[in-house]
Specification:
- The chain is built from two helices and ten strands; from the N terminus they run H-E-E-E-E-E-E-H-E-E-E-E.
- The chain is mainly beta and 164 residues long.
- It has a domain of 114 residues: Immunoglobulin-like, CATH 2.60.40.
- It is globular.
- It starts with a helix and ends with a strand.
- The relative contact order is 0.24.
């Protein structure tokens, strides 16, 4: 019985971790030169950052556990890449991680074990907004979904189509 309780941790269905992280921003740029040094007709500081570019976005689909919210793949002006989870709501579970995969969102979760994925780290909270940086060397070609993955039981709690 104790081993079963340890493995499944049923009390985690009744617990929650809420996170409220700010969205990613580009690194601050060098201060703009004075207007006197600008070319005629140009304004100093006219190339200000307008925010991150959205590379892909989709709403979560429930798989093994009820999951909702949005996954957005962002690229700020500094060239970094991030997965942003907003309004996430899923079950707290053991050993949950965030992945980007080449498998379609939804359907049979066993397919994620066979496909290619980029692991972004442990799930920071089962409710709220969180940011996950993607390593610069990660190849996102052909990636189609963001998955909340339980390593302990090899199941997807939920997935969101992001098609990159």
């Amino acid at each position: 019985m104790a081993i079963g309780l340890w493995a499944f941790q049923p009390w985690r269905l009744l617990t929650s971790r809420t996170v409220r992280e700010a969205p990613p921003v580009a690194a601050p740029s060098a201060p703009a030169e004075s207007a006197e040094s600008s070319e005629p007709g140009e304004e100093a500081g006219s190339d200000e950052d307008t925010g991150p570019v959205v590379l892909g976005e989709g709403g979560f689909l429930t798989q093994e556990h009820g999951t909702s919210g949005t996954a957005t793949v962002l690229e700020p002006a500094d060239g970094s890449r991030h997965v942003r989870l907003t309004d996430l709501a899923t079950s707290d579970g053991p050993d949950l991680h965030v992945w980007i995969t080449d498998q379609e969102a939804g359907g049979d979760w066993s397919k994620y074990r066979d496909g290619r994925h980029v692991a972004l780290g442990p799930l920071k909270g089962d409710e709220g907004d969180a940011d996950y940086e993607i390593l610069p060397e990660a190849d996102l070609g052909g990636m189609t979904s963001v998955v909340i993955w339980c390593d302990r039981f090899s199941v997807a709690f939920g997935s969101a189509p992001v098609r990159l």
